[in-house]
Design goal:
With 324 residues, the protein is mainly β. The chain folds into two domains: 76 residues, SH3 type barrels (Roll); 152 residues, no CATH class. The protein is built from three helices and 24 strands. The strands form seven sheets. A five-stranded antiparallel beta sheet has the order 8-7-4-1-9, with no helix packed on it. Helix 2 runs antiparallel to helix 3. The chain is elongated, with a radius of gyration of 32 Å. The protein starts with a helix and ends with a strand.
């Protein structure tokens, strides 16, 4: 009997220990949230006084880093002096602080605040793949412009690899119709001898592949239809309007065989048709911004180095310059 009671007690003790054992919940650690710090937008200024002196220090007696042209774009670093100075500019007395800026060719220095103004940037309502590159060109950064173009071009080729395939002799295009078109360099039966192509972009909405075409030291652009392979030569890189009803191209000459010009094309039942051409002679168009579907702003650099804006608008009688 004693042994039976002992066995029952032992069983109860073991049973109680097993029940008292609780399973611990696995500890989970919340994933760390990376804090993204947005880079503040650059504050753009421009010199409204010709031959404005960029100085090493905020002082009229400091060393001159560079003489700035009227209209030259500057990036404000956000640093300015606690004191102001009185300076007479074009018959008007200004009492302003000095501002630290960076030029388009990466020179840093100080300018008198009364000689610069805030750059009222026009909102571009139609973006294109190379816009950021042309903005560098507008600021005078030609070397950075070339690097930017190369990077964007590589990205465009990767993005549209199903349709555009580089070939040692040129490019192979897979059209939406299912056909293939071979664009060969130096092809006497195609684009002609001494012609080479460089793919730049594909615009599915307007239905064209865009190539830069070099021919006997003259470079221009070529649009190739993505359905039938038909070709349309242009002066410069095309930028569609807000609703893709129009296209603007800008070309800047590097020698006498090139054109400083603007072309505007409009969509018709037969396709895009050139409706406006303007040879600017020595003035160089830099960047185009579509304000509306039928209104575009073009930044032009004059031979003096001064930059100004030209507004071109479509009206009943056609495209015309409405302000400059």
């Amino acid at each position: 009997m004693k042994y039976i009671l002992f066995s029952i007690c032992l069983t109860l003790i073991i049973s109680c220990k097993g029940d008292s054992t609780t399973q611990q919940e696995p500890v989970t650690t919340a994933p760390a949230i990376e804090k993204i710090v947005e880079k503040p937008a650059e504050i753009m200024l421009y010199a409204w006084v010709d031959k404005l002196r960029l100085r090493a220090k905020p002082d009229t007696k400091s060393d001159i880093v560079k003489e700035l042209l009227e209209g030259e774009a500057l990036v404000f670093t956000g640093e300015k002096t606690d004191f102001t100075q009185k300076v007479n500019l074009r018959g008007v007395m200004y009492d302003e602080p000095w501002m630290k800026v960076i030029t388009g060719d990466d020179k840093t220095g100080w300018v008198f605040g009364g000689a610069v103004k805030m750059y009222q940037q026009t909102t571009d309502k139609s973006s294109a793949p190379y816009d950021q590159c042309f903005q560098l060109l507008e600021l005078g950064n030609e070397r950075q412009f070339d690097n930017c173009v190369q990077k964007v071009k590589e990205a465009q080729l990767k993005k549209h690899s199903a349709y555009v395939k580089p070939d040692p002799k040129g490019y192979q295009l897979n059209l939406l119709s299912g056909d293939q078109v071979n664009l060969l360099d130096n092809d006497p039966n195609g684009l002609g001898r001494n012609n080479t192509l460089d793919f730049r972009a594909y615009y599915p909405k307007i239905g064209y592949f865009i190539f830069r075409m070099y021919a006997d030291s003259i470079d221009q652009y070529l649009m190739v239809n993505d359905k039938d392979g038909s070709q349309f030569p242009l002066w410069g890189f095309p930028k569609p309007s807000v609703e893709d009803n129009h296209i603007i191209t800008l070309s800047s000459k590097s020698d006498e065989q090139h054109i400083n010009g603007i072309q505007l094309l409009s969509s018709t039942p037969e396709g895009y048709v050139i409706q406006y051409e303007n040879d600017l002679l020595e003035a160089k168009p830099l960047i185009a911004k579509w304000v509306k579907d039928e209104k575009v702003e073009v930044t032009i650099k004059q031979p003096s180095g001064k930059s100004e804006q030209m507004i071109i608008q479509k009206e009943e009688e056609g495209w015309r310059v409405v302000s400059q």
